[in-house]
Design a protein that fits this description.
single chain; 5-stranded antiparallel beta sheet; globular
Length: about 70
């Protein structure tokens, strides 16, 4: 997974689950070093309103289309 990839959320967000729901798609904006070797990924989610960026663990995202 890298910046620019199109991803799908595989679970509802712990932060604002009413906005960021399983199945929504978005673009990877940033990848942060996480704890225990699992990175956090900032995703700009389509249709998520005024604050469309949310952080997810990489394991909770499915890459749909890799950026070339």
């Amino acid at each position: 997974m890298k910046v620019g990839d199109l991803v799908k959320l595989t679970r509802d967000s712990d932060y604002q689950p009413q906005i960021f729901r399983r199945g929504m798609v978005g673009i990877v904006e940033w990848i942060h070093e996480g704890f225990a070797g699992e990175p956090f990924v900032d995703v700009r989610v389509s249709g998520a309103g005024d604050r469309p960026v949310v952080s997810y663990l990489a394991m909770d995202l499915e890459v749909i289309n890799e950026r070339r």
